[in-house]
């Protein structure tokens, strides 16, 4: 018998609204706390990128899909926030379920601020972000002594059209982990080359990180647009740029990994 939905000791005053990270796709990467919160939920507002198997943890809840997928038409953020307020005021246990981590390109800050303005407290359950899962799933360590001391997570897709400070990024010399970059691959390549990054800089393009259909394309900054086209790269995909890509194990093939049959 499962009692996981009950509050843990010291958690008697848990918020009624939770922003929960569903992780990068593999349902086994969901945290224990996320499972507990989902099992207690009355209503779940879920993004498109959430693996349907994650929703198996909340069969008792009303599931409302509020599509959020990079490069595609999405449910307006203002509408999602109004839904959150409506259910929060009804006193139900509400979960806003997001792919990856809510606080990394998940607009959690906006939702927390909107709820706070209306006097509604909310909790956050972290999830493994896609950029980290993509790297480790391909044997890439984002930081390595003697190669780079840091990693920078950024998005290539912004609603207001703002661009990163490419020159500052190149000067910093950190590993770049770029989200939502398939549609802007040509521009990213051009901007990094113009900012002084070496054309031979190693690049990894990872599609469907952490899932059985994960695919990896190893390339260079100069060649990445042509190689991505030949590879048939599709969203959702993560781009990792930096010398740590070359330092990763070389046995990884472009084909999806197959589990050994028993």
Describe the protein's architecture and organization:
With 262 residues, this protein is α/β, with parallel strands linked by helices. 26% of the residues lie in helices and 19% in strands. The protein has helices spanning 32-39, 77-89, 108-117, 130-137, 166-172, 185-194, 224-231, 244-247; strands at residues 17-21, 43-46, 62-65, 94-98, 122-125, 151-155, 175-179, 202-207, 215-220, 237-241. The strands form two sheets. It has a five-stranded parallel β-sheet, with helices on both faces. Strands 6-7-10-8-9 form a five-stranded mixed β-sheet, with helices on both faces. The longest helix has 13 residues, at 77-89. The two termini are 30 Å apart. It comes from Lampropedia cohaerens. It holds the Pfam family TP_methylase. Its EC number is 2.1.1.107. It is an enzyme of class 2 (transferase).
């Amino acid at each position: 018998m499962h009692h996981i939905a009950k509050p843990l000791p010291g958690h008697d005053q848990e918020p009624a609204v939770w922003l929960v990270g569903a992780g990068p796709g593999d349902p086994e990467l969901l945290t224990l706390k996320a499972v507990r919160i989902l099992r207690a939920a009355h209503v779940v507002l879920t993004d498109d990128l959430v693996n349907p198997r994650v929703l198996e943890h909340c069969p008792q809840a009303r599931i409302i899909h509020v599509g959020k997928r990079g490069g595609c038409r999405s449910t307006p953020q203002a509408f999602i926030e109004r839904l959150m307020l409506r259910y929060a005021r009804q006193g139900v246990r509400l979960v806003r379920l997001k792919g990856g981590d809510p606080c990394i390109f998940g607009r959690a800050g906006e939702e927390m601020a909107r709820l706070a303005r209306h006097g509604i407290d909310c909790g956050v359950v972290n999830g493994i972000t896609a950029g980290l899962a993509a790297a480790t799933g391909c044997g890439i360590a984002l930081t390595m002594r003697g190669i780079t001391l840091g990693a920078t997570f950024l998005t290539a897709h912004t609603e207001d059209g703002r661009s990163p400070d490419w020159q500052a990024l190149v000067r910093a010399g950190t590993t770049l982990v770029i989200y939502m970059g398939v549609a802007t691959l040509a521009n990213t390549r051009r901007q990094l080359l113009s900012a002084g990054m070496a054309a031979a800089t190693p690049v990894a393009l990872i599609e469907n990180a952490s899932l059985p259909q994960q695919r990896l394309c190893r390339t260079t900054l100069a060649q990445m647009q042509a190689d991505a086209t030949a590879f048939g790269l599709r969203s959702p995909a993560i781009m990792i740029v930096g010398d740590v890509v070359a330092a990763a194990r070389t046995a990884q093939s472009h084909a999806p990994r197959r589990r050994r049959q028993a």
